[in-house]
Amino acid sequence: MMRLSSRLAGVAAGLLLTTGVALPVRAEVPVQSYEVVRAYPHDTGAFTEGLFFHDGGLYESTGLYPSFIRKVDLETGRVERQRDLPTIYFGEGMTTLNGKLYSLTWRNHIGFIWKLDDFSPLGGFSYPGEGWALTTDGRRLIMSDGTDQLRFLDPETLAETGRVSVTADGRPLDQINELEWIDGEVFANIWQDNRIARIDPETGVVKAFIDLTGLVPTGANLDPNDDVLNGIAWDAAGKRLFVTGKRWPQLFEIRLK
Predict the structure, then answer these.
(1) Residue at 24 is within a domain
(2) Which residues of the chain have pLDDT under 50?
(3) Which residues form the domain of 147?
(4) 43-47 long-range contacts, CB within 8 A, separation 24+
(5) Quick check: is 246 in a domain?
(6) Predicted TM-score of the model (pTM)
(7) The CATH number of the domain where 140 resides is what?
(8) pLDDT tens column, 12-46
(9) How many domains does the chain have?
(10) In a domain, 91, yes or no
(11) CA distances from 136 to 4, 37, 155, 192, 221 (A)
(12) What is the tens place of the pLDDT at every residue in 146-163?
Protein backbone atom coordinates (compact mmCIF):
# COMPACT_ATOMS: atom_id res chain seq x y z
CA MET A 1 0.00 0.00 0.00
CA MET A 2 2.83 2.38 0.87
CA ARG A 3 4.66 1.54 -2.35
CA LEU A 4 1.51 2.16 -4.43
CA SER A 5 0.79 5.46 -2.68
CA SER A 6 4.35 6.66 -3.23
CA ARG A 7 4.14 5.72 -6.90
CA LEU A 8 0.84 7.60 -7.35
CA ALA A 9 2.30 10.62 -5.60
CA GLY A 10 5.23 10.51 -7.97
CA VAL A 11 2.95 10.37 -10.99
CA ALA A 12 0.96 13.35 -9.69
CA ALA A 13 4.15 15.29 -9.10
CA GLY A 14 5.32 14.44 -12.60
CA LEU A 15 2.06 15.69 -14.09
CA LEU A 16 2.41 18.90 -12.15
CA LEU A 17 5.95 19.40 -13.46
CA THR A 18 5.03 18.69 -17.09
CA THR A 19 1.76 20.61 -17.21
CA GLY A 20 2.41 23.36 -14.72
CA VAL A 21 -1.15 22.91 -13.42
CA ALA A 22 -1.84 21.72 -9.89
CA LEU A 23 -4.15 18.71 -9.76
CA PRO A 24 -7.34 19.15 -7.71
CA VAL A 25 -7.23 17.47 -4.32
CA ARG A 26 -10.48 15.77 -3.34
CA ALA A 27 -11.26 16.41 0.32
CA GLU A 28 -13.29 13.74 2.05
CA VAL A 29 -16.53 14.76 3.75
CA PRO A 30 -16.09 14.86 7.54
CA VAL A 31 -17.88 12.15 9.53
CA GLN A 32 -19.46 12.89 12.91
CA SER A 33 -20.24 10.47 15.70
CA TYR A 34 -23.03 10.64 18.27
CA GLU A 35 -24.13 9.58 21.70
CA VAL A 36 -27.56 8.39 22.79
CA VAL A 37 -29.23 10.69 25.29
CA ARG A 38 -32.43 8.73 25.73
CA ALA A 39 -34.62 6.11 24.07
CA TYR A 40 -38.41 6.36 23.66
CA PRO A 41 -40.97 3.75 22.57
CA HIS A 42 -41.78 3.52 18.88
CA ASP A 43 -44.56 1.57 17.17
CA THR A 44 -43.06 -1.45 15.36
CA GLY A 45 -46.01 -1.31 12.98
CA ALA A 46 -45.01 2.15 11.77
CA PHE A 47 -43.10 2.02 8.47
CA THR A 48 -41.72 5.50 9.08
CA GLU A 49 -41.54 7.87 6.12
CA GLY A 50 -41.89 11.33 7.67
CA LEU A 51 -41.16 12.63 11.15
CA PHE A 52 -41.20 16.05 12.78
CA PHE A 53 -41.58 17.63 16.24
CA HIS A 54 -43.93 20.59 16.71
CA ASP A 55 -45.23 22.37 19.82
CA GLY A 56 -44.35 19.46 22.08
CA GLY A 57 -45.85 16.80 19.82
CA LEU A 58 -44.25 14.20 17.59
CA TYR A 59 -45.82 13.72 14.15
CA GLU A 60 -45.20 10.70 11.93
CA SER A 61 -46.27 9.51 8.49
CA THR A 62 -45.92 5.97 7.22
CA GLY A 63 -45.80 3.98 4.02
CA LEU A 64 -47.19 0.56 3.01
CA TYR A 65 -50.94 -0.11 2.84
CA PRO A 66 -52.75 1.36 4.58
CA SER A 67 -50.56 4.39 5.18
CA PHE A 68 -51.38 6.95 7.83
CA ILE A 69 -50.42 10.25 9.41
CA ARG A 70 -50.49 10.53 13.19
CA LYS A 71 -49.60 12.57 16.23
CA VAL A 72 -47.80 10.63 18.93
CA ASP A 73 -47.01 11.27 22.58
CA LEU A 74 -43.21 11.23 22.72
CA GLU A 75 -42.92 9.84 26.24
CA THR A 76 -45.30 6.92 25.89
CA GLY A 77 -45.60 6.34 22.15
CA ARG A 78 -49.38 6.59 22.52
CA VAL A 79 -51.20 7.65 19.36
CA GLU A 80 -53.13 10.85 20.05
CA ARG A 81 -54.57 11.40 16.58
CA GLN A 82 -54.45 9.42 13.35
CA ARG A 83 -55.82 9.60 9.84
CA ASP A 84 -55.51 6.72 7.38
CA LEU A 85 -54.91 7.46 3.72
CA PRO A 86 -57.09 5.77 1.09
CA THR A 87 -55.58 2.35 0.46
CA ILE A 88 -54.49 3.21 -3.09
CA TYR A 89 -51.85 5.58 -1.68
CA PHE A 90 -48.41 4.68 -0.34
CA GLY A 91 -47.67 7.51 2.08
CA GLU A 92 -44.34 9.30 2.23
CA GLY A 93 -42.84 12.32 3.99
CA MET A 94 -44.61 15.28 5.57
CA THR A 95 -44.01 18.63 7.24
CA THR A 96 -45.97 21.54 8.72
CA LEU A 97 -46.07 25.24 7.93
CA ASN A 98 -48.54 27.96 8.94
CA GLY A 99 -51.00 25.61 10.59
CA LYS A 100 -51.11 23.21 7.64
CA LEU A 101 -49.70 19.72 7.31
CA TYR A 102 -48.37 18.71 3.89
CA SER A 103 -47.88 15.05 3.03
CA LEU A 104 -46.62 13.16 -0.03
CA THR A 105 -47.37 9.88 -1.73
CA TRP A 106 -44.75 7.70 -3.38
CA ARG A 107 -45.74 7.06 -7.00
CA ASN A 108 -49.19 8.61 -7.26
CA HIS A 109 -47.82 12.10 -8.04
CA ILE A 110 -50.24 13.47 -5.43
CA GLY A 111 -49.72 15.35 -2.20
CA PHE A 112 -52.27 16.22 0.47
CA ILE A 113 -52.85 19.31 2.61
CA TRP A 114 -54.39 18.82 6.06
CA LYS A 115 -55.35 21.05 8.95
CA LEU A 116 -52.65 20.45 11.54
CA ASP A 117 -54.82 20.52 14.63
CA ASP A 118 -57.34 17.88 13.56
CA PHE A 119 -56.06 16.36 10.27
CA SER A 120 -59.15 17.50 8.39
CA PRO A 121 -58.50 17.73 4.61
CA LEU A 122 -57.80 21.14 3.06
CA GLY A 123 -56.85 20.13 -0.47
CA GLY A 124 -54.21 18.51 -2.59
CA PHE A 125 -51.51 19.15 -5.16
CA SER A 126 -49.62 17.28 -7.84
CA TYR A 127 -45.97 16.93 -8.80
CA PRO A 128 -43.93 15.03 -11.39
CA GLY A 129 -41.81 12.07 -10.35
CA GLU A 130 -41.82 10.32 -7.01
CA GLY A 131 -42.48 11.85 -3.61
CA TRP A 132 -40.09 10.88 -0.82
CA ALA A 133 -39.81 13.53 1.88
CA LEU A 134 -40.69 17.07 2.93
CA THR A 135 -39.32 19.68 5.30
CA THR A 136 -39.49 23.47 5.47
CA ASP A 137 -37.17 26.39 6.12
CA GLY A 138 -40.12 28.47 7.33
CA ARG A 139 -40.65 30.02 3.89
CA ARG A 140 -40.55 27.19 1.38
CA LEU A 141 -41.28 23.49 1.32
CA ILE A 142 -38.24 21.37 0.54
CA MET A 143 -38.89 18.03 -1.15
CA SER A 144 -36.82 14.96 -2.00
CA ASP A 145 -37.75 12.54 -4.78
CA GLY A 146 -35.23 9.70 -4.45
CA THR A 147 -32.68 11.29 -6.77
CA ASP A 148 -29.87 13.71 -5.92
CA GLN A 149 -32.28 16.65 -6.25
CA LEU A 150 -33.86 18.81 -3.59
CA ARG A 151 -36.88 20.73 -4.88
CA PHE A 152 -38.17 23.98 -3.41
CA LEU A 153 -41.93 24.56 -3.47
CA ASP A 154 -44.07 27.61 -2.80
CA PRO A 155 -46.31 26.61 0.16
CA GLU A 156 -49.32 28.48 -1.24
CA THR A 157 -49.26 27.52 -4.92
CA LEU A 158 -47.20 24.33 -4.46
CA ALA A 159 -45.35 25.29 -7.63
CA GLU A 160 -41.69 24.39 -7.86
CA THR A 161 -39.57 27.53 -7.49
CA GLY A 162 -36.12 25.95 -7.82
CA ARG A 163 -33.96 22.98 -7.03
CA VAL A 164 -30.41 22.06 -6.10
CA SER A 165 -28.27 18.97 -6.78
CA VAL A 166 -26.81 17.28 -3.71
CA THR A 167 -23.13 16.36 -3.95
CA ALA A 168 -20.61 14.71 -1.65
CA ASP A 169 -16.93 14.96 -2.52
CA GLY A 170 -18.00 16.50 -5.82
CA ARG A 171 -20.12 13.51 -6.80
CA PRO A 172 -23.94 13.34 -6.95
CA LEU A 173 -25.54 11.80 -3.87
CA ASP A 174 -28.85 10.18 -4.72
CA GLN A 175 -31.42 8.21 -2.70
CA ILE A 176 -31.99 11.31 -0.58
CA ASN A 177 -34.83 10.39 1.74
CA GLU A 178 -36.40 11.82 4.92
CA LEU A 179 -35.55 15.48 5.52
CA GLU A 180 -35.33 17.87 8.47
CA TRP A 181 -34.41 21.56 8.56
CA ILE A 182 -31.99 22.22 11.43
CA ASP A 183 -30.35 25.60 12.02
CA GLY A 184 -29.93 26.49 8.37
CA GLU A 185 -29.04 23.03 7.09
CA VAL A 186 -31.03 20.16 5.61
CA PHE A 187 -30.41 16.90 7.46
CA ALA A 188 -31.25 13.96 5.19
CA ASN A 189 -31.51 10.21 5.52
CA ILE A 190 -30.08 8.20 2.64
CA TRP A 191 -32.12 5.14 1.67
CA GLN A 192 -30.54 1.93 2.99
CA ASP A 193 -27.59 3.84 4.43
CA ASN A 194 -26.81 4.33 8.13
CA ARG A 195 -25.57 7.87 7.55
CA ILE A 196 -27.36 11.19 7.74
CA ALA A 197 -26.13 13.90 5.37
CA ARG A 198 -25.88 17.52 6.49
CA ILE A 199 -26.59 19.53 3.34
CA ASP A 200 -26.02 23.19 2.54
CA PRO A 201 -29.41 24.14 1.00
CA GLU A 202 -27.92 26.87 -1.18
CA THR A 203 -25.18 24.80 -2.85
CA GLY A 204 -26.33 21.21 -2.26
CA VAL A 205 -22.89 20.36 -0.88
CA VAL A 206 -22.79 17.76 1.91
CA LYS A 207 -20.93 19.45 4.77
CA ALA A 208 -20.72 16.33 6.94
CA PHE A 209 -22.07 12.83 7.43
CA ILE A 210 -23.38 11.53 10.75
CA ASP A 211 -22.64 7.82 11.04
CA LEU A 212 -25.39 6.07 13.03
CA THR A 213 -24.29 2.50 12.26
CA GLY A 214 -24.24 1.41 15.91
CA LEU A 215 -27.73 2.74 16.54
CA VAL A 216 -29.57 0.05 14.58
CA PRO A 217 -31.45 -2.04 17.17
CA THR A 218 -30.07 -5.52 17.73
CA GLY A 219 -32.26 -8.48 18.55
CA ALA A 220 -35.31 -6.93 16.92
CA ASN A 221 -37.01 -8.81 14.09
CA LEU A 222 -36.05 -6.30 11.40
CA ASP A 223 -35.73 -6.77 7.64
CA PRO A 224 -32.25 -5.42 6.80
CA ASN A 225 -33.43 -4.32 3.35
CA ASP A 226 -36.59 -2.44 4.37
CA ASP A 227 -36.54 -1.72 8.11
CA VAL A 228 -33.73 0.78 7.85
CA LEU A 229 -32.79 4.07 9.44
CA ASN A 230 -35.38 6.70 8.44
CA GLY A 231 -36.88 9.57 10.37
CA ILE A 232 -35.31 12.76 11.71
CA ALA A 233 -37.09 15.22 14.01
CA TRP A 234 -35.75 18.40 15.60
CA ASP A 235 -37.11 20.05 18.72
CA ALA A 236 -35.96 23.61 17.99
CA ALA A 237 -37.01 24.95 21.40
CA GLY A 238 -35.32 22.21 23.39
CA LYS A 239 -32.43 21.67 20.93
CA ARG A 240 -33.17 17.95 20.86
CA LEU A 241 -32.49 15.70 17.88
CA PHE A 242 -34.56 12.53 17.41
CA VAL A 243 -34.00 9.68 14.95
CA THR A 244 -35.64 6.33 14.30
CA GLY A 245 -36.15 3.74 11.59
CA LYS A 246 -38.88 1.87 9.79
CA ARG A 247 -40.63 -0.47 12.22
CA TRP A 248 -37.95 0.14 14.85
CA PRO A 249 -38.99 -0.55 18.45
CA GLN A 250 -37.38 2.66 19.67
CA LEU A 251 -36.96 6.31 18.79
CA PHE A 252 -33.70 7.83 20.00
CA GLU A 253 -32.71 11.24 21.18
CA ILE A 254 -29.07 11.70 20.19
CA ARG A 255 -26.37 14.31 20.69
CA LEU A 256 -23.79 14.94 17.99
CA LYS A 257 -20.10 14.88 18.78
Answers:
(1) no
(2) 1-25
(3) 29-256
(4) 43/72, 43/77, 43/79, 44/220, 44/247, 44/248, 44/249, 45/247, 46/246, 46/247, 47/226, 47/246, 47/247
(5) yes
(6) 0.89
(7) 2.130.10.10
(8) 433 333 344 444 445 689 999 999 999 999 999 99
(9) 1
(10) yes
(11) 47, 26, 9, 23, 34
(12) 999 999 999 999 999 999
